[in-house]
Amino acid sequence: MASDPPRGQQPDLGWLLTGLVERVPHARSALLLSTDGLVKAAHGLERDAAEQLAALASGLHALARGAGARFAEGGEVRQVVVEWESALLSVASAGQGSVLAALADRRADVAVLGYELTLLVKSVRSVLETPLRLPAGY
């Protein structure tokens, strides 16, 4: 299991995502993004696809946050799952300002995928977080 790196050092986020994809049978790709949709690290995706998936994951996460404010007493979003006929997408909060997304073949076990996302986030949450960006001039 990965652990937080020493202060001032950043982990190899690509390696973390590669490990996630390798541990989950039928997983295809993984992506770490900021909540506003900027790609921080990706595995198994070309740049254009990573940016498109980041926009989708960011939007799903934002919709879930809004729904949570209205219907779940404002609780934090843990995970959003989309099941298509041929694929699964799991989107999870990854610390303040960050989201983790994983795309898998439909044969993947959604519970295993969600469990592995949760383990990864818990083990390295502090390095996955993205500081809030302020508008220019602040």
Which strand order spans the largest sheet, edge to edge or round the barrel? 2-1-5-4-3
Helix content: 25-40%
CA-based gyration radius: 15 Å
Overall geometry: globular
Task: State which percent range the strand residues make up.
Answer: 15-25%
- Mean pLDDT across the residues is 86
**H and E string:** HEEHEEEH
Structural class: alpha+beta
Number of distinct beta strands: 5
Q: What composes the largest sheet?
A: 5 strands, antiparallel
- Helix count from the secondary structure assignment: 3
How many angstroms separate the termini? 39 Å
List unreliable stretches of 5+ residues.
Answer: 1-10
Short description:
This protein is an alpha+beta fold and 138 residues long. It has helices spanning 13-23, 47-71, 110-128; strands at 27-34, 39-43, 79-83, 87-93, 98-105.
What does this entry look like structurally?
This protein is an alpha+beta fold. Helices cover 40% and strands 24% of the residues. The chain is built from three helices and five strands; from the N terminus they run H-E-E-H-E-E-E-H. It has a five-stranded antiparallel beta sheet with strand order 2-1-5-4-3, sandwiched between helices. Strand 3 and strand 4 form a beta hairpin. The protein is globular, with a radius of gyration of 15 Å. 29% of the residues are buried. The model is unreliable at 1-10 (pLDDT under 50).
